[in-house]
TrEMBL record:
SUPFAM superfamilies: SirA-like. Transmembrane segments: none annotated. It comes from Halomonas citrativorans. PROSITE patterns: UPF0033. Pfam families: TusA. This is Rhodanese-like domain protein. Belongs to the sulfur carrier protein TusA family.
Amino acid sequence: MSELFVRFHPDVVLDACGLPCPMPLLKTKQALAGLAAGQLLEVRATDAGSWRDIASFTDQGNHEMEAREQHEGTYFFWIRKAGEAH
């Protein structure tokens, strides 16, 4: 198992595998909207465009990309929801 998989303990896991572009990004936005500030979202996607799209989304917004990696055609993202944690 990857070191990142051991290190991260997400609050929510979003499985967007098999969804075509732009659905992984849209589902990521929806999932983040349902989280409290400071919570960690893990996204799993198989669409190659998600690597660029989700990174651009976090770069342009306030959410923090904790890490991302690719394993055997699946892309994994760990995104911390922006805002003040309570």
